[in-house]
Amino acid sequence: MSKEFKNIAVLGSTGSIGTQTLDIISEYPSMFHASVLTANHNWQLLAEQAKKYLPERIVIADVKYYHNLKEALAGLPIEVVAGADAIAEAAALPQVDIVVTAMVGYSGLIPTIAAINAGKIIALANKETLVVAGELITNLIKTSNSEIIPVDSEHSAIFQCLVGESCNRANKILLTASGGPFRKLSKEQLDKVTVKDALRHPNWNMGAKVTIDSASMMNKGFEMIEARWLFGCPPSKIQIVVHPQSIVHSMVEFVDGSIKAQLGVPDMRLPIRYALGYPDRLPSDNPKQKLSLSQFSTLTFEEPDYEKFPLLTYAFKAIEMGGNMPCILNAANEKAVAAFLREEIKFTDMPRLAAYTMEKTPFIPSPTLDDLIATNTEALKIADEWLTNLRS
Ligand code: MG
Hints:
Blueprint: E1 6-11, H1 16-27, E2 32-39, H2 43-53, E3 57-60, H3 66-72, E4 79-82, H4 85-91, E5 98-101, H5 109-117, E6 121-124, H6 128-142, E7 147-150, H7 153-162, E8 170-177, H8 187-190, H9 195-198, H10 208-216, H11 218-230, E9 238-242, E10 248-254, E11 259-263, H12 269-277, H13 310-321, H14 325-341, H15 349-360, H16 369-391
Parallel strand pairs: 1-2, 1-5, 2-3, 3-4, 5-6, 6-7, 8-9
Antiparallel strand pairs: 8-10, 10-11
Helix pairs in contact: 2-3, 4-5, 5-6, 6-11, 6-14, 11-13, 13-15, 14-15, 14-16, 15-16
């Protein structure tokens, strides 16, 4: 077992994955220290976390809360910094060993690139990074000392199935999906679901963005793209399997026909603990995190309904086209989810908005980072156009 002490930067420490990462850090105080904490705007919780974990530096992306934070932490040996650019800088600090990328959406991209360039271990929880810039990130990793350990439960499962196996021997990835709260609804019923319905996930307790993405199956589409880059697996060899109990977190089929699966209770602290401890498994006595198989007499698996959940089909289309298309889909989806959460559009409008944006945004087959940044801006603008047309 490696005894090395690890300094951790938690980017997005006030969100769902961020707070659960801090739970794990508290469980193993002799192994981990929270060195850097960053948040978008929740300065009160960030101040509270800073007092408890005493990081060397904290960053608030929204500069208007800088003075509140500074005042709340007066007298403590904590450097307080503000601004989105400061997040990337903090991720690359020399004392940091592991960077947990737990921020939501596109905002994860630039700090993750900074952390890779600084040779950090990336505990990747921000799936949009690989959706937007999978090829670019994969190439960066190859030429750096950095390494990605996935935190997403499905990718952690696939990663764990592949430990000790040569990647070449895998035949296909079986990516499991809970199917979300609307699995059994008809197309007509889907038309009428509310924000409250969509936020009620049957198994997982997550942030609002990923919960809506789970309900629309966009999350599974993004996870397919994430798996494509993390494991170098062509999309045609990634099969989506709906498994409503969320006990099997994903599987890998090998060339001999054998399938390996990873099982556990649906609790994000398990994959977080694995990512922080890797290659070691850290002991835990938490009874709530132990799976009692006798409570699950039936585990079921079925095909997803691509017709009912077009965003899943669009994800396959986007990765097949490649280039900046996944980045366009991601930007459209960020707009769509925000508009749905504001109750401006229907649940079934989200794929319509995505289709429009994918059609109208100029396609670039081999985008640079600057192209992707410009694509994101352009696609957000085009998605806004669609929203404006809808209102008029
Ligand atoms: Mg997941």
